Amino acid sequence: MNLGEFRNIVFYGKGKSTLAIYNHLSVEDKFKFYWLDDASQCKPISVLESLDLNKDESLLIASPGVPLSKILVLRRFFKSWLSALEFELLLLNPSKTVAITGSAGKTMTAELLTHCFNSSNMKAISGGNNGVSFLTYPKSKLSNSIFVVEISSYQLEHHQKFTFDVAVLTSLFENHLKRHQTMEKYVEEKSKVVSFLKPFGLLVLNIDHPFVDVFLKLAEEKQAKIVSVSDSNKFADCFIDLSSLKIFYKSKIIPFEKREVSFFDRFGYVLPILEFFGIAKEDIKEFTKNFTPPKYRLEVISENPLVINDSKSTTLASTIRAIKLAKSLTSSITLVIGGRLKTGDDLSGFKTFILESKNFISRIICFGESAPVLTDLLKEFNVTTLQSLKHFNKEKIQGSILFSPGCESFDEFSDFEERGEFFSQIFLS
Q1: 359-395 burial string, b = 16+ CB within 10 Å, else e?
Q2: Which is it for strands 8-12 and 97-101: parallel, antiparallel or unpaired?
Q3: Who has the most CB within 10 Å: 50, 132, 389, 417?
């Protein structure tokens, strides 16, 4: 990437990614920097018209939160535009990259893969949608490292040219429809992870969704090697048995312990990638040793009684996965769900699954903004309704507890981390 042709750098959106780029570039006095913000009283077009920048010397760098439609309106003011993530990748130009996307499971898969690479003495770093900019790593880390790129549908919507050696789809269900409007548009953005796969690269593909053919067609055009992953189809290349905590891959049967429940299924996506990069070991699960999973993802915060903190669950599909995995840990649970429902979430499918699990779920507690809707949806159950999670009383519950909200946290908390910390403190205090 030739930055020398630009004099003006305009950032659209002030997030972690654009701030990291600013901090990196502002060390040298080569550029003039400008910021656009939809929250300000001045509209971006008015700001750009008043600045009267030389188009041929101007580059726009956009945060993932800015919809593509808003960027295209401003396109005439700039010679080029890039997403913040793609700017980093083009600037650093890593030799090997793995792009990981999915409706859920991206961060855990990326962190586990990075850990396994480093455990095998193959250098790797992770960044992207997990909030970590690759520009924040020291040069010693950047040199000869595999870049494990967590990439969201928002970032894929902006993506234009950088290609990856490996593409991973961890899951696919209705999500972010407030931004993408339709499931078809959401799938179109997610499938770009394959569109930007290098020829003869590797696609690790979750096949437990009805849009498999979209990804397979793109992969065939790239002549990619395809590894299918499923927790429902035993004929997949990699079958993940949630009930027994085992992974079946080729001739290998890899068992996991209950304490590894939060990440064991993610190893089903990691395994073929390690193989693709030539990493072989008789007991390949050894590479997961000493892995510390990200917090609030099926995190066991108490063993007696069993209490699982899955605050990262912001969709009903994520809660369904959590319930399936909890069945391997205990005979029954109290399910705690609530928050702000996401647009387009499948309430009917969720109810069907909950009804099928009635022998496992002894009680349901609904809290927050979605509590009235969820309580009415699940009225056949023993449901307790709380106006706020802050009214939760652990003393009134017996047995195992699964806190897997299935909703966004913004009705009461700034993010899922704050919600998760609040819930943990109820039991740790």
Answers
A1: ebbbbbbbbbbbbeebbebbeebebbbbeebeebeee
A2: unpaired
A3: 389
CB 255 within 8 A of CB 246: yes
Q: Is the pLDDT of residue 105 over 90?
A: yes
Q: What is the pTM of this model?
A: 0.93
pLDDT of 427 reads 87
Which backbone phi and psi does 9 adopt, to 5 degrees?
Answer: -115, 120
Q: Do 238 and 104 have their domain in common?
A: yes
The separation between CA 246 and the C-alpha centre of its own chain, rounded to angstroms, equals: 23
Is residue 411 in a domain? yes
Residues 70 and 129 in one domain: no
Q: Burial, 182: exposed, middle or buried (Cβ in 10 Å; 0-12, 13-18, 19+)?
A: exposed
pLDDT tens digits, residue range 302-321?
998 999 999 999 999 999 99
Cα–Cα dist 167/149, whole Å = 10
Domains identified in the chain, total number = 3
- In the predicted structure, residue 1 carries a pLDDT above the cut 80: no
The CATH number of the domain where 245 resides is what?
A: 3.40.1190.10
pLDDT class of 40 with cuts at 50, 70, 90: low
- Pairing outcome for strands 333-338 and 401-403: parallel
Hey, what are 293's tokens? Answer: 């999973």
Return the SS3 of 226: strand
The boundaries of the domain holding residue 78 are: 3-83
User: Is 88 part of a structural domain of the chain?
Assistant: no
One-letter amino acid at 272 equals P
